[in-house]
Amino acid sequence: MSDAHNEHQSLISTPKQLIAAVAGFFLVIVIGIILLVIFATNDRLVGAGTNSQSAEAVQTRLRPIAEEGFTLVDANAPKVLQAGNVVYAAVCAACHDSGAAGAPKLGDNGAWGTRLAQGYDTLIKHAIEGIRAMPAKGGNPDLDDVEVARAVVYLANKSGASFKEPAVPAPVASPAAASADATPATAPTVAPAGTVSTAPAPAAAPVVAIGDTGKALYNSACIACHGAGIAGAPKLGDKAAWAARIAQGSPTLYEHAIKGFQGKAGVMPPKGGSPAPDGDVKAAVDYMVLASK
Description:
By secondary structure, this protein is mostly helical.
């Protein structure tokens, strides 16, 4: 009977034991919290004794997140000419990958045979100035002639040629710049006190009409096909050919112009082979629609 009573007896039998148990419990909790805080704040804290408030550190924290991972480019720095494969992928591939508008495909040695026989200089001339359905510089007037030549060499060499990469011509100083360098600087003329300057006011910036953007893109890229009706493209101003297309609505026309379209009558390369932004392509579509209603 005595043994059974001892089995059910509590481990805490005095007030001192109870107080010690409660204090130990809270001590374990406090130590656990301290260890958790140390683990969570393992990195060095900023504040007094650090350079966290220096001008450089503050500027780094305030820098726009959009600049992360980008290198700022000086707009006045000399232009870096793109490689031939880069120009081809951005401009030429729209037609020369699919054969749109009769363009010889990349790697089609048979289609390129007669063209390569014309010689390097003729191919470069046609690519820069344009020929038939081929717009000047592939529809991108911002390309340098050397960049166009590099793209032609890349395309031709992938199709049976063995042309040499064109060299970048050395810059030639203009006569005006040379004479300006040779002319000694003169002191500026100072007007007498009290006189009023009669210098003409600077000319105001030209106002660009809404339709100018679409017309400019049409003349640089779209006219190659829509001016002559090549590859089934409806001619500008041909109301009969445009009627069914206009009936599809502007959203459909925009989508076909931006993403490209292949139908029974012909092929439309994305953006007509131009790197123009979507807004300019839509403006060109609106220009052609208005001229063909």
